[in-house]
Amino acid sequence: MKIDELDVRIVELFTQDSRIGVLAASRALGVARPTVQSRLDKLRRAGVIQDMAPTLNPARFGYPVMAIVSIEISQGVGHVPVGEALREIPEVIEMYTVSGDHDVMVRVVARSNDDLQRVIDAIARTGAVNRTRSVVVLQTHFQNRVLPLFAQVGGAEPSEGS
């Protein structure tokens, strides 16, 4: 898919304020409202924009502890049943099948360190887990930092704060 500077400017604007609306975005960008709408539709259809949902911060509603857990699974089981089992644990907020010494990496949140132990125990009880290793995240410097990459593909310089 060809991405140009206008696509980048539209995505940056909606990233900065997802509630801006198409009409206000068209005014801010100095382009017609149908142009902004058609560009957003094109980016959604292509899967470049996955959603316009709010980004939730688990620490702000009672889950301040975050950890990355690497999981070694039983080789006869496979990652699909493990994923199905982990999806049942609400504190598991991301899952990746990976190469290397571990089979799966997950990002989890918890209410406290004691609660983190409960979450890790729940992961271990899924029936296909041989071993887990975890590291507690002390501070998040940035995450989901895709906008500068998108701007680079579109031939634009990302705006401040991207």
- In round numbers, the mean pLDDT is 92
- Per the CATH scheme, the topology name of the largest domain is Alpha-Beta Plaits
Distance linking N and C termini: 22 Å
Q: How many β strands by DSSP? A: 4
- Sheet bearing the most strands, described? 4 strands, antiparallel
SSE class: alpha+beta
Number of helices: 6
What top-tier CATH class of the largest domain fits best? Alpha Beta
The tally of domains stands at 2
* Sheet with most strands: strand arrangement: 2-3-1-4
What is the rounded Rg?
Answer: 20 Å
Overall CATH architecture of the largest domain: 2-Layer Sandwich
Shape: elongated
Order of helices and strands: HHHEHEEHEH
Q: What is the CATH superfamily label of the largest domain?
A: Lrp/AsnC effector binding domain/regulation of amino acid metabolism (RAM) domain
Q: Which percent range fits the helix content?
A: 25-40%
Strand content: 15-25%
Stretches where pLDDT falls below 50 for ≥5 residues?
Answer: none
